[in-house]
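[Discussion] Sanity-checking designs against the backbone

I'm trying to build intuition for which residues belong where. Below is a structure token string of 179 positions. I'd appreciate it if someone posts a full sequence so I can compare it with mine line by line.
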């Protein structure tokens, strides 16, 4: 958006009509930038300071699958309740789940998905499967957000692996260290 805005600033005014059109496009871009900033502020990770990771995941899954033709099973029973993990570990898992749920509900034709969060000794583990064998995995793995999530998991001593599950769909496994 910033690049488009800068390019619009450099367009010479050919005539008055073109100038008015350029001003309208600039207005739309400025409004889009404001809206993106508003959305980013709404996604503020401070919610982890007030609500546990499992509760945030429940809410995320509920909101994302509302009015969608998909059944998402969330299993958080393996998450040791009560004891908080380091903020960055929880935030990384929250972001991974947000991304995969968004991709499942908006870019796949899956009718079922399973999300399992467990905590074992020094790691948070996430296991996600969904039944869309035609899901564009290659494109997803090149997506900058997915690359960043993978790097973030590795940065915190874990892993991120998304692969085809033998014609059944997609399987994602992610983990982060919690100490």
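Best answer:
Here's mine. Compare freely.
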């Amino acid at each position: 958006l910033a690049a488009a805005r800068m390019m619009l600033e450099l367009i010479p005014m050919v005539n008055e009509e073109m100038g008015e059109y350029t001003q309208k496009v600039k207005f739309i871009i400025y409004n889009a930038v404001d809206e993106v900033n508003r959305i980013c502020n709404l996604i503020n990770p401070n919610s982890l300071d007030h609500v546990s990771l499992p509760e945030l995941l429940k809410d995320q899954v509920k909101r994302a699958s509302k009015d969608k033709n998909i059944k998402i099973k969330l299993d958080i029973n393996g998450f040791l309740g009560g004891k908080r993990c380091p903020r960055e570990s929880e935030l990384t898992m929250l972001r991974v789940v947000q991304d995969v749920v968004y991709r499942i509900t908006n870019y796949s034709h899956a009718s079922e998905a399973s999300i399992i969060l467990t905590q074992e000794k020094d790691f948070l583990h996430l296991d996600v499967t969904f039944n869309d064998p035609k899901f564009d995995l290659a494109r997803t793995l090149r997506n900058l957000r997915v690359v960043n999530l993978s790097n973030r998991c590795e940065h915190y001593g874990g892993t991120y692996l998304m692969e085809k599950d033998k014609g059944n769909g997609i399987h994602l496994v992610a983990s982060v260290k919690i100490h």
